[in-house]
């Protein structure tokens, strides 16, 4: 059975969704989430009611660590969110530590891969704002994660085709889940 599950010590997720709620929650995030759940894929997404503060951060890190596939949904305001950037940096770090056991599949929702790679002002401006609030180490990690994931092959929704009929072939036939 797909969807979110209770936090058991041995439970894991197939997919972790990272997204900026204001940009995508009632749009592509809901469509993708429901498509994956309908395909029997266990999905973690940060919904209301998961707690706050340190407890939420712990749950998110545990979900990232346990997931096999990460799907960051990049949108106009994604890089303005410390939380989204921390999730992304954690995904990249966990993927590296897994030795190839994890996969990142980015979705570019109303942004281009070059925005994510910091080749345009869109995400560069966001990081400039965050430099005034967070440590240089944090910002450097976020920049590195954005650049790395921006070069990965993903789904570009600007084509207008995101009915996600590709979910089944992508996940089930490739042996990810």
From TrEMBL:
Organism: Eucalyptus grandis
Identification of the protein by name: ADP-ribosyl cyclase/cyclic ADP-ribose hydrolase
Keyword set includes Protein transport: no
Annotated GO MF terms: NAD+ nucleosidase activity, cyclic ADP-ribose generating
Assigned EC number: 3.2.2.6
PANTHER family xref list: TIR DOMAIN-CONTAINING PROTEIN, TMV RESISTANCE PROTEIN N-LIKE
Keywords recorded for this protein, A-Z: Hydrolase, NAD
Catalysed reaction, written as an equation: NAD(+) + H2O = ADP-D-ribose + nicotinamide + H(+)
PROSITE patterns xref list: TIR
């Amino acid at each position: 059975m797909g969807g979110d599950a209770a936090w058991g010590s041995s439970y894991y997720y197939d997919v972790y969704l990272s997204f900026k709620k204001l940009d995508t929650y009632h749009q592509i995030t809901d469509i993708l989430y429901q498509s994956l759940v309908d395909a029997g894929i266990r999905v973690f997404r940060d919904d209301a009611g998961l707690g706050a503060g340190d407890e939420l951060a712990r749950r998110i890190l545990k979900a990232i660590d346990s997931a096999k596939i990460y799907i960051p949904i990049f949108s106009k305001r994604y890089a303005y969110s410390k939380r989204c950037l921390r999730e992304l940096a954690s995904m990249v770090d966990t993927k590296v530590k897994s030795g190839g056991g994890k996969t990142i599949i980015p979705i570019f929702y109303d942004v281009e891969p070059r925005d994510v790679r910091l080749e345009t002002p869109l995400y560069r401006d966001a990081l400039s704002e965050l430099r005034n609030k967070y440590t240089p180490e944090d910002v450097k990690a976020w920049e590195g994660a954005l650049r790395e994931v921006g070069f990965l092959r993903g789904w570009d929704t600007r084509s207008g085709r995101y009915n996600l009929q590709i979910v089944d072939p992508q996940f089930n036939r490739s042996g990810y889940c």
